[in-house]
Structures are given as structure tokens and as C-alpha cells.
Amino acid sequence: MSTTPEPVTVIGLGPMGQAMTRALLTAGHPVTVWNRTASRADAVVAEGATRADTVADALAATDVAVLSLTDYQAMYDILGAAPDALAGRLVVNLSSDTPRRSTEAAQWLAARGARLLVGGIMVSAELVGTEQSYVFYSGPRDDFHTHETTLSVLGRADYRGADHALAQLYYQAQLDIFLTSLAAYLHATAMLRAAGVPAPVFAPYAREMFDMTSYFLDGVPEEIERGEYPGDAATATMMGATAEHIVGASEDAGVDTTLPRAVLSYYRRAIEAGHGAHGWPSLYEVISRPA
């Protein structure tokens, strides 16, 4: 593991790429940057980064290239223009895509003499490099440990294993919780606003619910691993009745019912599968086995 700030290339200078570049510069790393729209590099170049004229130049400047792009197709489009410059390089792709695409990307890079370390950064741009920031990684263990100090500049580096798909899988799983929760908040807000309740009035109650929700995860992972879901607290039948009431309240309010109906469908399927008297975590059995 290196302790001397190593040179790093950053390719892709949207808000996230710029935040990564600034975090690396602040930590003393020489940073070379490249972006398809060259003007996006102006601000970080003014702060000390070095602009590369071409992708090939950017790759040649350092042994490590950090990518912050829209998706993995963008990686192919950009790096495919400079295949000869990839040999011997470690590509740390922090772009979002599917786990399968990560595995395919590792094979594509290997065919060109490069290695892939997959990453999923779990904060928005303004939090990169702060105590709240953490990043899932997967890929070659030796490469991760060699560059862990550098990677930790962006946030806590959480290595999940050698399988390239794992970091992206953890990343998307976290965003599954995040996006669904935010959509649920907006849906709940819409129901109340339909009754004339301003969004700011409801917001403190929503925050309290978000803060409390983690309490209900206690013991659930163990139940899932055992495949046993005691119904001595909230059964699937009881929670399913509540899910029906939410759909009814949504209809009465005249707001979209897509999200609550999706939740209700899980409860109905679980009850139909014989889990009515089991705890609500028994929904896992139908979620993990698509209809």
C-alpha cells in the first residue's frame, strides 16, 4: 500500500468527476484530467490539475485511471479510441451500471492488457472525500491493496471481493433502498397535499419515520438466513391489510397508486404462498422468486 501521493488520471468531469479531482488534489495527488467537453476541465485545471489533450495522453500520464462516466458504454466509447494506451493500466471505474456489465468490462479491458477495479461511490458529489463518503470496490485484491490509500481519499474504501460484479451489486442494492424510499416519501407527501397539508408540515414526521425504520431491521437478516419468519409481531396478513388501506387512501386522494400497489402485490403473493401467519420478512420468499 503506497503512502506517497501517487499520480492519478480522472476521466469524466461531471459534478462527481470534478469532486473526485478536487479531493485528490487536496490530498496532494498529481491529477491529469480529460473530458469529452474540454471546457469542463477548466475549473479543476485552474486548481492544479493537468489537462490532457487526448484520452491516450491521459492514460499515458499515470498508471491509474479513475473513470466517472454515465455508464459502462461511455467507457467503451472513450477508451476504445485509445486501445494501445490501456496496456498495463489499472482502470478504476466508478460509473454506474449493472453487475453483468462490470464483468464484461473486466474481460474487455483484460483483452487490451488492462485491469479493472470496479467501484460504486455511495454519496453525492458534495460529500466526496468527507467522513460520510464510502465506496464499494471489487476486482483484483492486490490492486485494491496497492492503491487503497489513494482510493481512500474519495471516501472509506470498502473492498467486497475479487468478483468484479460485487461492487456494482452492493451499489445498486443500496440505491434500491434509496430510490424506493425517496419515491415513498413523495407519494406520502402527495396524499397529504391532496388534503391541503403543506409539504413542510409533513416533513418532520417523514424524517422521524426514516430515522425509525432501521429499528425494524433488527433480527431480520438472521430470519432470512434461516428461512424462518416468526409471526409474533407483525404478520404478513396484518401488514397486507395496511398495504390495502394505503392503496385505498391513495385512490381517495386521487394520487398515483403504482408504488403502493406494487407493495400490496408482495403481501398478497406471500399470503397466497402460505405466509399469512408469518412475519412480514416472509415477503423475501416471493421477492427472491419472481412470479
Give your account of this protein's structure.
This protein has 291 residues and is of the alpha/beta class. Helix content is 50%, strand content 12%. The protein has 13 helices and eight strands. The chain has helices at 15-26, 42-46, 55-61, 72-79, 99-110, 141-146, 148-151, 165-194, 199-213, 220-226, 236-253, 258-275, 284-287, and strands spanning 8-11, 31-34, 50-51, 64-67, 90-93, 115-121, 134-138, 156-159. Strands 3-2-1-4-5-6-7-8 form an eight-stranded mixed β-sheet, sandwiched between helices. α5 packs antiparallel against α8, α8 (165-194) packs antiparallel against α9 and α11 packs antiparallel against α12. The termini are far apart. The mean pLDDT is 96.
How would you summarize this macromolecular structure in one to three sentences?
50% of the residues lie in helices and 12% in strands. The chain is α/β, with parallel strands linked by helices and 291 residues long.
